[in-house]
Amino acid sequence: MGFRSAVSARRIIVGISGASGVVLGVRLLELLRELGLETHLVATRAAILTIGHELGRSYESVKALASVVHGTHDVGAAIASGSFKTEGMIVAPCSMRTLAAIATGVTDTLLTRAADVVLKERRRLVLLPRETPLHLGHLRNMVAVTEMGAIVMPPVPAFYAGSDSVEAMIDQILGRALDLFGLDCPRVVRWQGKRA
Q1: Over the stretch 85-139, which tens digit does the pLDDT of each residue have?
Q2: Beta-carbon contacts of residue 153 (< 8 Å; ≥ 6 apart)
Q3: In this predicted model, what pLDDT tens digit does every residue of 158-190 receive, in sequence order?
Q4: Where are the domains of the chain?
Q5: pLDDT-above-70 percentage for the chain
Q6: Topology of the domain comprising 11-179
Q7: DSSP the chain
């Protein structure tokens, strides 16, 4: 008799906070759907407002991209428990408020609780912070979450990829974030070395 896989489907939690750049989280859901992963979406109230403002689309249309959607105050959600197996979590974009809450263990929303669970279970947590310039408090919070096991990945364009559109730049950034989970996104332009 063989053992069954601990996770029947590969699951990733996608957190969208209210920072500018919500297109990152929305596009991430699309890419994960293309890769066939089960996605668990949790968005903050500010994120829902920003989706309407920046993208001109409804939150309902974004929810349709996810396998499962959790309310930001649903403390009984599956992703609030470490016994619910996932590959980890990506917060894209990650506001400075969300970063500070994760860095200090404040779990006042489901998004920050899910991130806290991912850290305590030693799973992969990738944060795409959206702020510039940064003050010392931001930097200290980035150090704190890094020391706790998270990966801080500012969504910086890879100019070497020769992207000819903002959409291609976004795909490159998100593809590199998915690399951190061992997921190969075919949209990533990989550096092959420079020939003389």
Answers
A1: 999 999 999 999 999 999 999 999 999 999 999 999 999 999 999 999 999 999 9
A2: 126, 127, 128, 176, 177, 180
A3: 888 888 899 999 999 999 999 999 999 988 988
A4: 11-179
A5: 95
A6: Rossmann fold (3.40.50)
A7: -PPPPS-SS-EEEEEE-SSS-THHHHHHHHHHHHTT-EEEEEE-HHHHHHIIIII---HHHHHTTSSEEE-TT-TTSGGGSTTS--SEEEEEEE-HHHHHHHHHT---SHHHHHHHHHHHTT-EEEEEE--SS--HHHHHHHHHHHHHT-EE------GGG---SHHHHHHHHHHHHHHTTT---TTPPPP-----
Q: Which of 77, 147, 56 shows the shortest CA–CA distance to 15?
A: 77
| Tokens 């489901």 -> residue | 110
Structure tokens at 154: 């500012």
Confirm whether pTM is higher than 0.85: yes
